[in-house]
Amino acid sequence: MEIALEYEFGKFLECDNEGISFILGGDSAVKWKLYRGLKRFATGKMLSELEEHVYGDDGIVIRADGRQIKAKDIQLLMIDHRESFFEQLRVSKGTMMNGFVETLQDNFEVIKKMDELNDDLLRLEILIQEKFSDSFTTVVPLIKNFTFNDLMKNFLGLSYYEENKEFPLEMMDVATVIDDYCDILEHNLSSTSKETWLWLFNPNSFVNNVVLQQLLERLKVICSESDLLRVFVLSDDCLGISHAEEDIAKTVLVYQNQQQQLPELSELIKSIERYYPDDFRYDTEQLVDSLYRIFPSVGQEDAKIYLKPKDMLLLKVVSQLVDCPSKEKCKDFSDELTTLEKKFLQKE
To answer: What domain of life is recorded for the organism (predicted)?
Structure first.
């Protein structure tokens, strides 16, 4: 699916998304503007006059395969801190957990138990009426039927257990909640059949590498099993996870107000070889790891970049490849670099 996302009036980030997309590169300002606009779009509310100065009279424009999307057409899930996971696991209006609980009111066993509760309430009402009749001539007490909405609104809470102790849901470790979050996401996709876009913004700030890897692997499975889920990962930093070869073509570099969706790895290698100053000697896994270490630094301005000499060399090559001048210099010319590689790094 070809997606165009407006982050300022007339300025769009465009990418092809088939499952999970990675939006990296040194232009953190554009990534923030993009995410900021998406959060505003997700509210579905009209823009204020001041906001129209930023996005224009037509509002925030999002297109999918050329068709303009409205907020009601898709579900946007924005995850930018630890609390974001728990927001959808609470029983409150509009959450995925609330949607799951609401489906239980049509469950046969739940309906049967609700009927039994109301039969007990009727017997309780009769008993109280008998007690009232001893003291009052005309006043008669009534007990309303107990509904499923009453249960959700006044009696239902969520918690979790750890070492046989009960804790509030919010105290749960993010590593523990990942599976439940993905489970409720799967149920939501199945029950609503609504296209869902899940955005992860700078995940390094709230999950560790192991948890992020588990989350993305689970989301990748959900994407493959359902055409309804699309995942976007925006990061200013190296993610520190294992990337597959196919991730390269799913990666968009954002740098110095420019953007570039990368080709398949085989095509990228051919391009890198044309710019590389010496024989290009990388095995595939080594190259993919190195590329994802340097991607966040492409086009990064006014910042010190700390990379190993080989990675710095690859950064300069990729920067030239996408026509983005590389201003960084490497001071550590170690023995691992050839003479031609050293000269290439020293060259202005």
So the answer is: Bacteria
Tell me the average confidence (pLDDT) per consecutive run of 10 residues in the chain, 348 residues long: 93 93 94 94 90 90 93 94 90 91 93 95 95 90 92 87 82 87 95 95 93 95 93 94 95 93 95 88 91 92 76 90 73 67 71
What does the CA dihedral 187, 5, 80, 285 come to, rounded to 10 degrees?
Answer: 90
Predicted TM-score (pTM) of the model is 0.88
For residue 143, CA distances in Å to 112, 114, 122 come to 19, 15, 7
The kind and range of the H/E element at 5 are: strand 2-8
Give helix 284-294 / helix 309-321 axis angle, nearest 10°: 80
* Tokens standing for residue 154: 């006044």
Q: What's the per-residue H, E or C state across 156-206?
A: CCCEEEECCEEEEHHHCCHHHHHHHHHHHHHHHHHHHCCCEEEEEECHHHC
Is residue 11 helix, strand or coil?
strand
